[in-house]
């Protein structure tokens, strides 16, 4: 009797351990491999029914604008641009259509350009400018250096045309100019536009550091007005061209997405639209019920077989549910902890550990590690590996604010891109410039970040 009891316990433990291993395996699998795993299991188990994916559900996160009474002042701005009245009906109709999934920024802009009646010289210069934009939608060289002397006379008109195309904010020198252009496109004007421009050009770092009172004083506006302007800024896109970037591997299927929808809210979506729906075939359940009390040898064998297969199918379904619920919980925490990143981009990533997220959702750190392994998230800034949203940090010595490694790396990139001295900056000089911002980053660390950004050394760049 004791031996029989031990044997039953051992069998239960073996079954539990097998299910646990299977659950851990499903946790780790990226979406494309998970789909293949489901298909493999269905091919071996006749009781498993695999159906077309269901539509995904969104979990809304109300963004900053809902916090302040002054927000309506900025939400009410018109969507028409300064040159919107010049758009043809064909162009307006085109904008209402659906953009092709894999359309590049250049294709997207050229398609719009073809719907506008233009002088052929202006059109030609506009095409040259479009072909010179980087993936963010910005110029890498001065526009005047891109056209011949004979075409300089058409440059301003061509730029005006590009600035009326969608997405708003393209054909600029950097994200600051783009944000101002988007604000104008949204209808911001007068003193509000002056304050907004000054905010974007000179005070974003102080706002990120929580120095709103200091910034409001410098801009000579009420702090309430400043907060409303800053919230309005969050509805804009610093790098408008990135949504058309097709440089990533198209075979990658993101497991979840967090994107800005309706202009003022971030929405979490689990990618159920790619995952098939798994269930147990009721026909086999009925057969199992029918054979369960049978004395017939063949039916007893069939009952034993069906019981094992149905149990295996139910286990797979439970494991898929656990994987999804864990992924959603992690997504909710990321939405809260990294909301600045989803609103502003990589520069605003905050240091975050797997343990912090694990403690939030009540699981072991290894569970968070598994559910974030080999997974991708789709954002307004492109595709990211989930693990990239867990960066280490560097503290600002003046304010105590901690910046993520990704944010500091982005500062290095921006310093190099905005260098107008005519001479490439050395790693030590970049380190010194970061130190002026209160960020201690050694020369060798700058060198490492620069290599990760795929930017040549100062000697290769022209010192």
Automatic annotation (TrEMBL):
Gene Ontology, cellular component aspect: DNA-directed RNA polymerase complex
Taxonomy, superkingdom: Bacteria
Protein name (database record): RNA polymerase factor sigma-54
Domain (RNA polymerase sigma factor 54 DNA-binding) ranges: 304-461
Species the sequence originates in: Bullifex porci
InterPro entries the record matches: RNA_pol_sigma_54, RNA_pol_sigma_54_core-bd, RNA_pol_sigma_54_DNA-bd, RpoN_core-bd_sf
Keyword match Cell inner membrane: no
Pfam family, one: Sigma54_DBD
Stated family: Belongs to the sigma-54 factor family.
Keywords: DNA-binding, DNA-directed RNA polymerase, Nucleotidyltransferase, Sigma factor, Transcription, Transcription regulation, Transferase
NAD is among the record's keywords: no
Cited PANTHER family: RNA POLYMERASE SIGMA-54 FACTOR (PTHR32248)
Location of the RNA polymerase sigma factor 54 core-binding domain: 95-284
